[in-house]
């Protein structure tokens, strides 16, 4: 509990620092959201109207004053309102978040279905044809950019074969291509990681001792080698899960998938500052929560961490 409380304090300080830095950089970005809101390219707008809206949004105040106003609203769980849709930023994020989570979970399922069997077989049959094929897959998969793989899938399954939709969200078919794109790109990393971790575990002294006591290979692998091999996998998984949620931006734009990634890209194009700032903090909070959860799982899987914590007490 002490460790978790310490992590939460560090998280709050980091969140304040990140919010200030992101707020300053967003405000210093080129472009004028006021002109975007008034549609100056489409209708005639006077300077008085522009200045009136600037005063209303407090754009004429110094940056630290603007940040103070934003920070007070933030502590009231108010991320402001979108300049374009006039809707609360938090409600817009929450309305788009289930779509991103669905895409993330589907991608993780694809990754697990590919990486666990391939990584396990590659370790059990080292230097056999299965090992060579899995290592080749890992090499090719990690070399191909995910957006290029997505374009190949669109060309093959949507354009030429016409069996899967290439954009939007509606049926289960819409999630297949984007989840395959993300899942295959991730599985290439985990195949190599799981293979190396299992090979290291199979050569440990406690495994040799278990074999000498006559314990079956199946029991040794499932209850000793595989569990210990999950420790580095869980660590990397926690890091990649957060980056996966935030990194779906490219895939969501490519497949016109209505998640928070596509929403923030649209906000950047429209210079919708509250949505951009809200997205940064929303993703940061999510990633930190995932890392804390992974840290707890890591302590459960690795007895050495728990024993060190007991000794310090």
UniProtKB/TrEMBL annotation:
Keywords tagged on the record: Cell membrane, Ion transport, Membrane, Nickel, Nickel transport, Transmembrane, Transmembrane helix, Transport
PROSITE patterns named in the record: ABC_TM1 (PS50928)
One GO CC term, this protein: plasma membrane
Localization of this protein: Cell membrane
Residue intervals of the ABC transmembrane type-1 domain: 97-294
Protein name as annotated: Nickel import system permease protein NikB
Transmembrane portions of the chain: 101-124, 136-163, 175-194, 229-256, 276-298
Family from the record: Belongs to the binding-protein-dependent transport system permease family. OppBC subfamily.
GO MF term list: nickel cation transmembrane transporter activity
Assembly notes: The complex is composed of two ATP-binding proteins (NikD and NikE), two transmembrane proteins (NikB and NikC) and a solute-binding protein (NikA).
Membrane-topology descriptor: Multi-pass membrane protein
InterPro entries on file: BPD_transp_1_N, MetI-like, MetI-like_sf, Opp2B
